[in-house]
Design brief:
RNA-binding; 4 strands; alpha+beta; Ribosomal Protein S5, domain 2; four-stranded mixed sheet
Length: 117
RNA sequence: GGAGUGGACCGGAUGGCCGCUGGCCGGGUUCCGAUGGGGCCGCCAUAUCGGCCUCGAAGAAGGGCCCCGGCGAGAGGAAAGUCCGGGCUCCGCAGGACACGGUGAUGGGUAACGCCCACCGGCCGUGAGGCCAGGGAAAGUGCAACAGAAAGCAGACCGCCUCGCGGGCCUCAAGCCCGCGCGGCAAGGGUGAAACGGUGAGGUAAGAGCUCACCAGCAGGCUGGGUGACCGGCUUGGCUAGGCAAACCCCACCGGGAGCAAGGUCAAACAGGGAGCAGUGGACAGGCCGGAGCACUCCGUUGCUGCGGCCAUCCCGCGGGUUGGUCCGGUCCGCGAUCGACUCCCGGGUAGACCGCUCGAGGGGCCGAGUAAUCGGCCCCCUAGAGAAAUGGCCAUCGCCUGCCCGAUUACCGUCGGGUAGGUACAGAACCCGGCUUACAGGUCCGCUCCGAAC
RNA sequence: UGGGGAAUAGUGUAACGGCAGCACGAGUGACUCUGGAUCACUUAGUCUAGGUUCAAAUCCUAGUUCCCCAG
């Protein structure tokens, strides 16, 4: 408890990292999110956001990104370490924090299992 | 009080916990960093010379990434659309004309504008007010479906009228009617979005600006007001000139192109060029150059010895051209390394990082000039700078709006208080400004108009 | 972010400013024992809102949606 910060190192921001995650072609999804996963050589998970213009205007897209970062921040210690997540919200889904808090760790665990196999 | 009209403004508030971005200060860690840093003296002073002291290869001074702590800051009126105009940056550039694009009454404002202000004209509205791409159709070319006789400058379908002929109305004449013909006319009918000024009188065979009066409108002259668009008056003329330029066009004015993903600095990796090191055919009887040793008593433009480099020659090997139907062979040309490993250097520069990047046609107040837009002076303030893109998440309380219920008041509409449910808009800086346009829950303030009532 | 373009029946496309067509489709009927093919008929449209014009799919202005290009 207590370590709920969101350091810049937790974020995927380089084009190469995104391409690596997409190139691994390992995904997990539910009716809220679609998540690409790829292992990294770090001791912590990282998150990258990809929010399409089809989800709404700039305000709606910022709302999605903020909630996704909040969901990652609040339970990033429970997420599997050493994994890069690229999160894409699904079209038609409603941005709401409680659903994301349930959805994100479940999808991340499923990705970790698939990648460790 | 109701209805309306024009303008200015606000765009929820407070608190708690957990976060994000960049700035300043302090600390930590790691990396970079040197014939370096700091101090004193040499008249003074210095990025510059010298001396001394001191810190420093056990890595200084200083700086960068990251981490911790503290302080204070952090979306808009449209940040939006990207429709105009500028600043800024790079590229281009003798000058002019054409083409293309844009704008369009007048006078101001402005860095500039297609914006703003004032005014003029037209249309709409009882009015306050609103709307107008509002130059030119008496430069030229063109267009007008359908209807209608005719759609642009003249013409005449029905029609009206004189005359002539024929017929009819009892025979003749007159008159009336019908038909035909030579003519005259454009008042009336009907069509259309639009039909060649309108009304009245005179006039006439019938009519007609044919004439006259008034009205509308046009052109010229004179004149008053206004900076001007324009408005007004007098007079003369001709009686009429149609619409469309957001059709081509003409006239006047404006416009070089691209855009911060502009542009610049540093610079991995890969590829390129150069140098070094080691490996990589031989022969030699040639020439040139370089430097070494020995000899000549010394010197050396001398001789000898052997070495290196370049050129030439021959053999060998490889590649290519040619001859040849094809290979071999002949002949000609080129090369004797390509290449790979390591080290160093060079240019351009990708990924990436940094700069551009927020103090600006900036905001607020007061005073002055101006009808106003706006401009000037003085004082005060500093107010986001991200980059797969920060400015948030959760919760509580209170506002505000709507619906429902209860109570009070009231002739009614309503108003006030309480409870409850729902809602609390449009929308997110991306180099920066000035505008325009579009979206928007709810609310505040001011000016003005019309109607009604009361005094 | 910047630049360019488009929008017409359900779909694909035409239309000098003057009646909005064509093909495929869908529906109905005829032909056939039935189906297909064929024939006839029907269906339904100018992205939205203003403006210019007598008249707008067309011209102008604003908006909406979609597509393409650069990096």
């Amino acid at each position: 408890m207590g370590d709920e910060r969101f350091l810049p190192a937790y974020r995927i921001r380089s084009r190469a990292d995104f391409q690596r995650a997409y190139g691994r072609r390992c995904t997990a999804s539910d009716n809220l999110l679609l998540v690409f996963g790829a292992p990294n050589d770090l001791s912590y998970p990282r998150i990258g956001l990809s929010v399409s213009r089809k989800l709404g205007n700039a305000v709606a897209r910022n709302r999605w990104k903020r909630l996704l970062r909040e969901a990652f921040r609040l339970n990033h210690r429970q997420l599997p370490a050493g994994i890069d997540l690229v999160v894409i919200p699904r079209q038609g889904a409603e941005p709401e924090l409680a659903g994301l808090l349930r959805s994100l760790p479940r999808l991340a665990d499923r990705l970790a299992w698939k990648l460790g196999k």
